[in-house]
């Protein structure tokens, strides 16, 4: 098995592994073991969030792993309820405490909702003080991203957005590249929606390479220079999802996957007023 990961260079020169591990919806009591298994499998980038309620378990697994801090890349995110200049700083310090770390590699605004301009000003300061290696955003559609960039000093290093074969975000990626923002996929498997794991085009391409659908999807994203953070609670799948650096998809295979794009979210639209209201009311403490 080849677990030869590679990195992307963010707009401030920081190196970020192109393949990491996500812990959304990992049950709280399982998270420490799951992250320990992921680190043992070879993952060195972990993606969590204050709203996942598992930063402490992630921190315990990191501490127990004995892996040198500089060899890890830890991302966490600030929830909507904590946007604002002072609250953002307090919330960041809380995440740091929960993780048991003295810096975070990447700190993201989780949603483009609430007073996130104030949060961004606080994050620029936190970054300037050296508590984070890079700052970025998540779930920003191009209009919100360009507005944030236009009215602030620091260009987000990353925008983490829903990206998978049924919602490919190629135009978003192109725009982000023009501004120097790295695209990062969440939900690379669309959480299995739309029968992704039995999709005939994807299974056919997998068969040609002796690879699973999951591996084909991750490889396709990596070949597009999209950072990926697949989630699995199963060690054999963790290993499988890392094993994507010993094959390459042909131009024809890339084009067949491109044809699966529906151009719409399989989850929800951050511009839907009902969803904006629901997310804004969600409390994470
Ligand atoms: N910024 C945001 O708003 C946002 C939103 C969603 C997610 N995220 C981040 O992105 C990460 C990944 O997204 P996600 O967790 O939503 O979904 P995902 O990675 O697209 O899919 C996870 C699902 O795929 C299954 N799976 C994993 N590997 C597999 C394999 N090799 N074969 C078959 N099934 C496999 C998992 O099952 P098992 O666990 O049972 O293996 C789980 O049901 C999250 O964990 C989180 O860190 C961010």
UniProtKB/TrEMBL annotation:
Enzyme active site: 52 (proton donor)
Keyword set includes GTP-binding: no
Cited InterPro entries: AKR, Aldo/ket_reductase_CS, NAD(P)_OxRdtase_dom_sf, NADP_OxRdtase_dom
Residue ranges constituting the NADP-dependent oxidoreductase domain according to the UniProt record: 25-261
SUPFAM superfamilies: NAD(P)-linked oxidoreductase (SSF51430)
PROSITE patterns on file: ALDOKETO_REDUCTASE_1, ALDOKETO_REDUCTASE_2, ALDOKETO_REDUCTASE_3
Residue sites binding substrate per the record: 110
Residues marked Lowers pKa of active site Tyr (site): 77
Keyword Isomerase part of the UniProt annotation: no
Domain of life: Bacteria
CDD domains cross-referenced by the UniProt entry: AKR_AKR5F1
UniProt GO MF annotations: oxidoreductase activity, acting on the CH-OH group of donors, NAD or NADP as acceptor
Keywords, ordered alphabetically: NADP, Oxidoreductase
Family named by the database record: Belongs to the aldo/keto reductase family.
Full protein name: 2,5-diketo-D-gluconic acid reductase
Organism encoding this protein: Rhizocola hellebori
């Amino acid at each position: 098995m080849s677990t030869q990961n590679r990195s992307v260079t963010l707009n401030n020169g920081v190196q970020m592994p192109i393949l990491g591990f996500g812990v959304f919806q990992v049950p709280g009591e399982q998270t420490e073991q799951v992250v320990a298994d992921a680190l043992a499998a070879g993952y060195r980038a972990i993606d969590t969030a204050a709203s996942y309620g598992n930063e402490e378990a992630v921190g315990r697994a990191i501490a127990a792993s004995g892996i040198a801090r500089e060899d890890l890349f830890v991302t966490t995110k600030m929830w909507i309820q904590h946007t604002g200049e002072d609250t953002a700083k307090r919330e960041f310090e809380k995440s740091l405490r929960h993780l048991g770390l003295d810096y975070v590699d990447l700190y993201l605004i989780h949603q483009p909702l609430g007073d996130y301009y104030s949060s961004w000003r606080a994050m620029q300061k936190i970054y300037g003080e050296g508590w984070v290696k890079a700052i970025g955003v998540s779930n920003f559609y191009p209009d919100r991203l360009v507005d944030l960039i236009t009215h602030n000093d620091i260009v987000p290093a990353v925008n983490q957005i829903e990206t998978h074969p049924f919602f490919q975000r190629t135009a978003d990626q192109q725009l982000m590249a023009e501004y120097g923002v790295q695209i990062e996929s969440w939900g690379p498997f669309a959480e299995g929606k739309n029968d992704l794991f039995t999709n005939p085009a994807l299974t056919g391409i997998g068969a040609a390479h002796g690879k699973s659908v999951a591996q084909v999807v991750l490889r396709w994203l990596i070949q597009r220079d999209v950072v990926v953070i697949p989630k699995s609670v199963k060690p054999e799948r963790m290993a499988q999802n890392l094993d994507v650096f010993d094959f390459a998809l042909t131009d024809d295979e890339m084009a067949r996957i491109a044809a699966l794009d529906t151009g719409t979210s399989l989850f929800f639209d951050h511009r839907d007023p009902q969803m904006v209201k629901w997310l804004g009311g969600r409390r994470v403490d």
